[in-house]
């Protein structure tokens, strides 16, 4: 005889898109580490998948949702592991798995669903910048509590130049008009990094300070104004709550 126990949460997938440069990895960990720390729920069941290491990709039916991280790769390189993940994304989207893409994940979702990604014609966007909502999001399950303007951490050279047909553009920065995209009622992507702490953003800036300064950036001034980006970070906790109803029954022997 089998007894049904409490409902058990399906795991949230963290799809880690590549590996950080070695110096940053040794000092700060990897993208999945940053994401775990930022999700804000120590009891959340999480599984990390690394497509770049040829991890088998999960059955969407076994997950409560998936977060796709940033990367030091470029979507336009069409690396086999990245294109394999894009194919997986199309299937996960079709079965309505809750999805959240971040930076590279944002660009990969747009690419997978028919958008155009390439280098931004005005160069990189880096540092902490204002994000402004460009649409009414009061009824949106993920974004409904965001203020009209908030700050977020960014570091990217490529952008979504043309969103997929049917996607809603919900936020912009001075540099990039496609900061938040919504593809359906439970699929979103953001160009900024809600998981970045000031320490991590500072590390990303200072490790390549000569490169950025040669491009005209004042790295010391950018580091000096870094502060916790609470509104951006709240998106992760909200996404976790949206995934919480995705549960399975656990069965115990009598």
Question: Your description of this structure?
Answer:
The protein has helices spanning 22-28, 31-39, 80-94, 104-112, 198-206, 209-214, 219-224, 230-243; strands spanning 2-9, 12-15, 46-49, 65-68, 99-102, 116-119, 125-133, 149-156, 158-162, 168-172, 180-184, 187-190, 247-253. The radius of gyration is 18 Å and the shape is globular. It has one domain (2-196, 229-246): 3-Layer(aba) Sandwich (Rossmann fold), CATH 3.40.50. The longest helix has 15 residues, at 80-94. By secondary structure, it is an alpha/beta fold. The strands form three sheets. The chain has a nine-stranded mixed β-sheet with strand order 3-2-4-5-12-11-10-7-8, with helices on both faces. Strand 11 (180-184) and strand 12 form a beta hairpin. Helix 3 packs across helix 4.
